[in-house]
Structures are given as structure tokens and as C-alpha cells.
UniProtKB/TrEMBL annotation:
UniProt GO molecular function: RNA strand annealing activity; RNA strand-exchange activity
Bias-annotated ranges (Basic residues): 139-151
Lineage: superkingdom: Bacteria
Stretches the record annotates as Disordered: 103-164
Chain intervals with Basic and acidic residues compositional bias: 117-138
Record-stated family: Belongs to the ProQ family.
Function comment: RNA chaperone with significant RNA binding, RNA strand exchange and RNA duplexing activities.
Family annotation (Pfam families): ProQ (PF04352), ProQ_C (PF17516)
Keywords: Chaperone, Cytoplasm, RNA-binding
Protein's name in the database: RNA chaperone ProQ
PANTHER family to which the protein is assigned, alphabetical: RNA CHAPERONE PROQ
Gene3D superfamilies per UniProt: ProQ/FinO domain
Amino acid sequence: MSDIEQGSGEVAPKITQSKAVIAYLAEKFPQCFSLTGEAKPLKIGIFDDLATRLENDERVSKTRIRTALRHYTNSWRYLRVVKAGAERVDLDGNAAGIVEEGHQQHAEEELAASKAKAAEKAAEKRQQEKAAKPEQKRQARAKTPAKRKPAGKPAAPKAAKAKPVNLQQAELNQLKVGQQVQVKVGQAPMPGQVVAVERDDVQVQLQNGLTMKVKAENIFFS
């Protein structure tokens, strides 16, 4: 008996967390869902199959299944395997269609957007931590007795504040492979390099190593 199931005669509680629902699905349908390793592209319309197979299952509701399924198919691990020509599987692991070109493009866009959002959050966290350091130093100095400066010794001049850099929006025909640019990710631009220039999109590599496709309107020259 699994850890998810209860002992005989006991009513098992409802599963409400998406991760727990996914674990339950992976136990029920191991040829379809997995928690580690490479995921498998799922059959289109697999939610309807789940709703039918688990119709009398008191552990999970259709709403929880739908939410967990969305969480599963939006994960980086899943989006990476949605490649044109790959075989989709049903609940029992049987072949159930092929991934089309449009599906791969959509998965790549979702993956790039998700990674960009994660990079933006990481950058915001670093900025918050950086902003908090002066206050921490000030508090530390307040607890430490101030040292008296020798008489007659002039104070060192303060460094001039760096002026903000004016950014110029780039045109598609101005961009070339290898150019150093500023890429607007979220609210703030990030340094990056042009990797490829396509018909409508520009592929850039950010300073943190992330490669993504953006429109020319989101690229600037410093």
C-alpha cells in the first residue's frame, strides 16, 4: 500500500495541493506521469480521460486535477520535451498522437517567458538585498563607538554619483550578431548580446546565461 493511501476501512482525506495531486497521478498512471527524469508529452484532451478514469475517486476533484495538470504541463521539465515529431502518450503509456510544430513553438515561448520571469524575480531579490546592505551597515556603525578623526586632516572628497545612462531603442535593421545591447526584461533592462536576428524576432543571450527571443522594441543601445 502506498503512503498516499490510508489503511483499510479508513476514509482517505482529499488531496488539495497540486504537487500531491501530481504525485497521486504518477502513482495511478506511471506510464504517463512522472515526478523525476524526462517527462513525456501528454495526449491532447488527457484531462477528459482523467475525469472519466477518476470519476469515482474520492481523493481528488476535477478542479484539483485540472489545476495540477496545468502545473505539470507548465513546468520547465515538461516544456523542454514538447518537440515537433515527439510521440504523445495516453494514461496507459500508449501512443496518442504527435507533437506538431505549432505546439513546440508555443512550448518554447512559454519556457522563455517563465525563465525570464524567474530571472526578473532573481534580479529584484538581488536589488532588495543590495538595498538592504547600507541600512545594515548603518545599524552596525550606530552600535560601534565613532572614532575621532585627527585634527587638521581634511576629509576625503566624496565620489561623484554616476549619471544615469540614456538608452536608445534599437531598430531591427540595426541589430547584428555579437552586438552588446540592453534587453528589457520585466521593468528593468539587462545587459545581453545578440545571438541571431530573424525575420520578426531577435535571439539574445542575457548576462546571466539565459537565451531568449524578444522583439526589437525591447532592445536598446546604451
